[in-house]
């Protein structure tokens, strides 16, 4: 049985989901950026030090996919130390 489509109901529902998705995407990009910067900035790598690829594998994301995400992320989107949860996103 087909479910009846309601335009306004669908718009309202997806507006909320889209807002959450955008924030989650920004949070993920922030964390990926910080992790990659930290991992790749280590001057001396010891055998037990995980690589960027190791990190991505542990979080369940291929490193190439993570790098593609980071191409669309500006470090300017990073909040200052005490602003992590209160920053406003840039409009695309």
Question: Can you describe this structure?
Answer:
With 92 residues, this protein is mainly alpha-helical. It has a domain at 9-41 and 50-77. The protein is built from 3 helices and no strands. It is elongated and about 60 Å long.
| Largest sheet report | none
Structural class: mainly alpha
Helix content: 55-70%
Q: Based on Cα principal axes, name the global outline.
A: elongated
Strand content: under 5%
**Average pLDDT over all residues:** 82
Order of helices and strands: HHH
Using the CA coordinates, give the radius of gyration: 18 Å
Q: Give the count of helical stretches.
A: 3
Poorly predicted runs of 5 or more residues: 84-92
Number of strands: 0
Distance between the termini: 39 Å
Task: Describe how the helices and strands are arranged.
Layout: H1 7-41, H2 52-59, H3 63-71
Summarize the structure.
The protein contains three helices and no strands. It is mostly helical and 92 residues long. It has a domain at 9-41 and 50-77.
